Automatic annotation (TrEMBL), chain A:
InterPro entries associated with the record: CobW/HypB/UreG_nucleotide-bd, Hyd_mat_HypB, P-loop_NTPase
Family statement drawn from the similarity comment of this UniProt entry: Belongs to the SIMIBI class G3E GTPase family. HypB/HupM subfamily.
Record's keyword terms, sorted: GTP-binding, Hydrolase, Metal-binding, Nickel, Nucleotide-binding, Zinc
Gene3D superfamilies: P-loop containing nucleotide triphosphate hydrolases (3.40.50.300)
Organism classification: Bacteria, Bacillati, Actinomycetota, Actinomycetes, Kitasatosporales
Protein name: Hydrogenase nickel incorporation protein HypB
Automatic annotation (TrEMBL), chain B:
Residues engaged in binding Zn(2+): C73, C76, C90, C93
Residue numbers binding Ni(2+): H2
Organism: Streptomyces orinoci (Streptoverticillium orinoci)
Entry keywords, A to Z: Metal-binding, Nickel, Zinc
Function: Involved in the maturation of [NiFe] hydrogenases. Required for nickel insertion into the metal center of the hydrogenase.
Protein name, entry field: Hydrogenase maturation factor HypA
Name of the gene this protein is made from: hypA
Keyword Metal-binding part of the UniProt annotation: yes
Family under the similarity heading: Belongs to the HypA/HybF family.
Pfam families (UniProt xref): HypA
Transmembrane regions: none
Length: 312, 118
């Protein structure tokens, strides 16, 4: 005899809860997190070097966190821009998650940061499933990668608020069929903007900075159709099969974990985030230290320690 | 290969639920995986066999219900399968669709617990 316990929980609910809390906390401090996804070798770091320098030149306080399986080479390159940079080594793990990211921000992220760029692990599969607490997700692809990549990695391209094409200075030399690429993008993410860039010539760098700063100013983001999934987890659940199995329990406590998948309802979720960090005005640089909660708890409360330290 | 991370979370959640319901062993975990969730069912099954070792799910089965990706065109009311890779445009009126109805699921729907011996 067995009994069936009905539950209704997104497998990544814990990550999504932590990501939502982090988004709310960053939002309260006036920091926008930009999650950058791409394959290895797409030119993400080279472009980010230019973007950080361009933002710094405009007097916008930005910071960058870069994740790699190994080596600190990327952090060294990004640090040349003069902005705060932190390297995260995932030790072989194929993606960043919200808890990992949060632990690296605590005690490091300067309090006045307007934009935090997170350079995710070079991989178009796994990182797509993990909400990091970003307000804006940007997927990058270089012209050397093939026009059908949006179809091969629909989650990476379909959940992005902005797509960035890199290395466009060599597009002609490698025979990149841009029209076919844009058609494939439109298929999985109708209406998303594709921005052409070149880290070598600087093309598109200022526009990319403009797009990010528009978000910090409260601009409206593109809403990817895939991210706007009706959210079956929200729906009423009736498992008819359960009734024929011995005892049948509804587990109310598990019925409504935070069901937001990556990319879903980001703005709304941030806006609903309770607690002092989301309240009016800016939270002091030591963060919402009075909020109770444990790091890594799944109760939706943000950790007790603040994220911020004063910028040196 | 984030299926291993996902399988590990499934095992942890199922163990928590089993404890809460006073069961020592889990016979099966039922999950729904959308075809656009970015998770490969075969890889998840393989990872589950690794993740369950030495846990209350040692001999548990993972029952995967695959959920097709569907969308509805709000203006014309057409309900359609988007396919893989998805084509998020209405096949009838050729407008872009604004949201999916299904296909992004990655959720635990039920666990089957071994009844404590009477």
């Amino acid at each position: 005899m067995c009994r069936v316990v009905d539950v209704r929980q997104a497998v990544l609910a814990k990550n999504d809860t932590l990501a939502g809390a982090l988004r709310g906390e960053l939002d309260g401090r006036g920091t926008v997190l930009v999650n950058l996804l791409s394959s290895p070798g797409s030119g993400k770091t080279a472009l980010l070097e230019r973007v950080l320098a361009a933002a710094a030149a405009r007097g916008v306080p930005v910071a960058a966190l870069t994740a790699d399986l190994a080596t600190e080479n990327d952090a060294r390159r990004l640090a040349r821009s003069g902005v705060p940079v932190r390297q995260v080594l995932t030790g072989g793990l194929c993606h960043l998650d919200a808890a990992q990211l949060r632990s690296h921000l605590a005690g490091w992220l300067p309090g006045d940061t307007r934009v935090l760029f997170v350079e995710n692990v070079g991989n178009l599969v796994c990182p797509a499933s993990y909400d990091l607490g970003e307000t804006m997700r940007v997927t990058l692809m270089s012209v050397t990668e093939g026009e059908d990549k949006p179809l091969k990695y629909p989650a990476a391209f379909g959940l992005a608020h902005l797509l960035v094409l890199t290395k466009t200075d060599i597009a002609a030399a490698v025979g990149f069929a841009e029209a076919a690429f844009r058609e494939n993008v439109a298929r999985v993410n109708p209406g998303v903007e594709v921005l052409n860039t070149s880290a070598r010539t600087g093309d598109g760098v200022e526009t990319l900075v403009d797009r990010v700063l528009a978000v910090t100013a409260g601009g409206v983001l593109h809403r990817p159709a895939m991210a706007e999934a009706a959210g079956d987890v929200h729906g009423h659940h009736h498992d008819a099969a359960g009734d024929v199995h011995g005892h049948h329990h509804h587990d109310a406590a598990d019925g409504h974990g935070h069901p937001h998948g990556p990319g879903s309802g980001r703005q709304d979720q941030a806006a609903q985030e309770p607690g002092p960090a989301a309240g009016p005005g800016r939270v002091p640089a030591d963060g919402p230290g009075a909020v109770p909660g444990r790091n890594g708890s799944d109760d939706g409360r943000r950790p007790a320690d603040g994220l911020a330290v004063p910028r040196p | 290969m984030h299926e291993l991370s996902i399988a590990t979370v499934i095992v942890e959640r199922a163990e928590e639920l089993a404890r809460r319901h006073g069961a020592e062993r889990v016979d099966a975990v039922r999950v729904r995986v959308g075809e656009l969730a970015g998770v490969v069912p075969d890889a998840l099954l393989f990872s589950f066999e690794v993740a369950r070792q030495g846990t209350a799910l040692d001999e548990a089965r993972l029952l995967i219900e695959e959920v097709p990706g569907r969308a509805r065109c709000e203006p014309c009311g057409t309900d359609f399968a988007v396919g893989v890779p998805p084509f998020l445009w209405c096949p009838r009126c050729e407008r872009p669709c604004e949201r999916l109805l299904s296909g992004r699921e990655l959720e635990i729907t039920a666990i089957e617990l071994e009844e404590a011996s009477v």
